[in-house]
Specification:
The complex is a heterodimer of chains A (about 325) and B (about 180). Chain A has about 325 residues and is mostly helical. Chain A is built from 12 helices and no strands. Chain A has one domain. Helices cover about 65% and strands about 0% of the residues of chain A. In chain A, helix 1 packs across helix 10 and helix 6 packs parallel to helix 12. The termini of chain A are far apart. The model of chain A has no long low-confidence stretch (mean pLDDT about 85). Chain B folds into 2 domains: about 90 residues, Four Helix Bundle (Hemerythrin (Met), subunit A); about 45 residues. Helices cover about 75% and strands about 0% of the residues of chain B. The model of chain B has no long low-confidence stretch (mean pLDDT about 80). Classes of the chains: A mainly alpha (about 325), B mainly alpha (about 180). Chains A and B meet through helix 3, helix 4, helix 5 and helix 6 of A and helix 2 and helix 3 of B.
């Protein structure tokens, strides 16, 4: 019996995607601690390995050797299934993200829709985990997660619709190919399509911060108010998988922003396009996300909702109308 | 010839049966569970199975919309509503009326008999045949030309629903 080469290719990509997600989760924690340290005039982890580079390994071993306690009174099935429900959609979204010209597991024609479809399942996992833990802090956190996600999904999707109107396709590979050339061809500077494109990028980025529950929008796991929010009751690797899912979502958000606005794997000067440019842009965005977390304090819940409903949604609607008018006129 | 498990057809058949199993298992959990949140989780599983069936039938757009709308929006909304409404944690659902079970079995029996009869009597196309390519462009064109009236009517219904919920929410809020 011989296996089809496509099957082998998909298997290799699947293993690669899971390794990429796990490695990113581990080393983004290291980056986060290091960056937080330097921002606060400390040096961050340094004892384990050179520059503390083996710290994530030690953390992983610690998490994995901890006993998986299922507290009395929780809903055992939902409690166990919730971390998986956060992790699996993230892995599914990686399938269609093109990191290079040929570096994509499956180039789906409606890849953009696929990413947003699976991103919406993430909330369900958090909600079930929070309810399953039967913990007051977790339930408060779940209520915040839902109202926050509902509020921020709207401006994000409107911005994406605007972009799809400009590109005319939801195929991520084609969207990147349209931004060939130099940085002046990237969608963020596509002022001919809509003069508000840089603003659209800003809206997308803010919504991404809120969608991934990152500071200043980390109301869901506000550790000074809610212990750890939805993760309060989770021990060991249950917590670890939640965290991996969270960092995987940050990577996905940064990747989508790179593809939609920053030209994916295209070089800013039209030279040597390749996966290195993609990773450079993606990690720069992730660096900014962490930078923002350690610079700004947490907002209050009402100002978070006000920002979305009174500022982001009207501006993104205006951008949508402006873009459609520009497309119609020119 | 017996279809082998290691051919494309065999794997596709296995996938189809698996998706069918997931859908049915989700439906059974959703109807038989005494715990409301678990029932919604079963419903989500059922929706995922249906989405898988759509993908299997070569309609990736409908499949992804199924996940985005039914799993990502409707199930989340239901759980949120249940979480807000159900204050006592161990409130269980109880069947009040003894007639519900037999009547339900009767109704579902009639429905499945009718559907099975229809499926068996219909003359199916012999070869695999697709009415159109099912692509996004075709779908959008159809929605904005052939079915534009129903499309507009649906948006009016949604608008009325939004305004209605706003009115209801407004009445319940104290003037602060």
């Amino acid at each position: 019996m011989s296996l089809h080469p496509e099957v082998i290719r998909l298997l290799i990509f699947l293993v690669g995607i899971i390794a990429f997600a796990a490695l990113n989760a581990a080393y983004l924690v290291w980056l986060e601690r290091k960056e937080a340290g330097h921002i606060q005039r400390r040096i961050g982890p340094k004892e384990v390995g050179p520059f503390g580079l083996l710290q994530p390994l030690a953390d992983g071993i610690k998490l994995m050797t901890k006993q998986l306690i299922v507290p009395a009174g929780v809903d055992p099935i939902l409690f166990k299934i919730a971390p998986i429900l956060v992790m699996v959609p993230a892995i599914m979204s990686f399938v269609t993200i093109p990191y290079g010209e040929n570096l994509v597991a499956r180039n789906i024609d409606i890849g953009l829709l696929m990413i947003f479809a699976f991103a919406s399942v993430n909330v369900l996992g958090l909600l079930l985990g929070a309810w399953g833990s039967r913990n007051k802090y977790a339930v408060i956190s779940a209520a915040r997660v839902v109202s926050q996600n509902v509020a921020y999904e709207i401006p994000m999707l409107i911005t994406v619709v605007t972009l799809v109107m400009i590109t005319g396709t939801m195929n991520l590979h084609e969207i990147v190919m349209q931004q060939q050339g130099g940085f002046w061809n990237w969608n963020i500077l596509n002022l001919a399509a809509s003069p508000l494109m840089p603003v659209a990028f800003l809206i997308f980025f803010v919504c991404m911060l809120a969608e991934t529950n990152r500071a200043p929008f980390d109301m869901a796991e506000a550790e000074s108010e809610l212990i750890a929010g939805a993760f309060t009751e989770y021990p060991g690797m249950g917590f670890g998988v939640f965290f991996m899912g969270e960092y995987a979502n940050i990577v996905i958000g940064a990747s989508v922003a790179t593809i939609l606005f920053l030209g994916g794997w295209q070089c800013p000067f039209g030279l040597f396009p390749g996966v290195h440019w993609f990773l450079l842009k993606m990690y720069f965005l992730i660096f900014t996300v962490i930078w923002i977390r350690w610079t700004y304090p947490r907002t209050t819940f009402y100002s978070l909702l006000n920002l979305s409903w009174k500022i982001l949604i009207p501006i993104s609607f205006f951008n949508l109308i402006l873009t459609s008018a520009m497309i119609k006129v020119f | 010839m017996e279809p082998s498990l290691f051919t494309v057809e065999g794997l596709a058949g296995l996938l189809f049966l698996g998706l069918l199993g997931v859908t049915l298992a989700g439906a059974v959990i959703a109807t038989c569970s005494t715990n409301l949140i678990r029932a919604v989780a079963g419903l989500a599983l059922c929706f995922l199975g249906v989405a898988g069936l759509y993908y299997y039938l070569n309609s990736p757009f409908v499949a992804l919309m199924q996940i985005l709308i039914y799993v990502g929006a409707i199930c989340v909304t239901i759980i949120f509503a249940v979480m807000l409404a159900e204050s006592s944690e161990l409130k269980r659902l109880r069947q009040r009326n003894g007639l519900i079970g037999p009547l339900g079995i009767l109704a579902s029996g009639i429905l499945s008999w009718a559907l099975a009869g229809m499926a068996l009597k219909t003359e199916w196309y012999k070869s695999a045949c697709q009415a159109n390519d099912g692509s996004l462009a075709r779908l959008g064109e159809a929605l904005l030309t052939t079915y534009s009236m129903s499309f507009e009517l649906i948006s009016v219904v949604l608008f009325v629903a939004i305004v209605g919920s706003l009115v209801l929410a407004r009445a319940g809020r104290s003037k602060a």
